[in-house]
Design goal:
By secondary structure, this protein is mainly alpha-helical. It has one domain (12-163): Tetracycline Repressor, domain 2 (Orthogonal Bundle). The protein has 8 helices and no strands. Helix 3 (42-59) packs antiparallel against helix 5, helix 4 crosses helix 5 and helix 6 packs antiparallel against helix 7 (131-141). It is globular.
Length: 165
């Protein structure tokens, strides 16, 4: 694309990044709403969301890198993503799926673990084959009973696999 064409649509690079963040954020919110319609278990929804992001890191490293960069550099986008994660945790606490207090600490722990795992996959230090292990750790961190983690992870993996293109 010619620079002139780009600047006909976006006056500055910052305007482009803001538009990109808006579109990605809207896509995540639509995905979360769709997931809520097909999966009743908040723990499974958290697991599925994490699996989808980890799958994106392997299938679309450029898109995943953009997502990770947007979270890292745009406070508004980071706040939007943190709110989505925190809402998912609150839903799990409310429905007695998670044995944690909803707040910044569990939100940051989950978001940080997923983002770092995405980076590891993008950089080739890990692969998606480790995603179920990562999800199991996230569920344990949220206080899901150990005897339920494997079943939730298996269900989430099945749903996430159905969602794959």
């Amino acid at each position: 694309m010619a620079a002139g064409t780009f600047y006909n649509h976006f006056p500055t690079v910052d305007d482009f990044v803001a538009a990109l963040a808006q579109d990605v954020g809207r896509g995540i919110e639509i995905g979360q709403a769709t997931l809520a319609e097909i999966e009743n278990d908040p723990a499974a929804r958290v697991a599925i969301g994490a699996l989808q992001l980890l799958r994106m890191a392997e299938a679309d490293p450029v898109g995943a890198s953009a997502f990770v960069s947007l979270v890292a550099t745009l406070p508004e986008f980071r706040a939007r993503v943190r709110t989505l994660v925190q809402d998912a945790i609150v839903d799990g606490v409310t429905n007695d799926c998670f044995d944690v207090h909803a707040g910044h600490a569990p939100t940051d722990a989950i978001l940080g673990a997923v983002l770092q795992s995405m980076r590891s996959i993008i950089l080739g230090e890990a692969t998606y084959t480790e995603a179920a292990t990562i999800v199991g750790l996230l569920l344990r961190l949220l206080g899901v009973p150990h005897d339920k983690v494997d079943a939730i992870t298996a269900r989430a993996t099945a749903v996430a696999t159905e969602q794959d293109p």
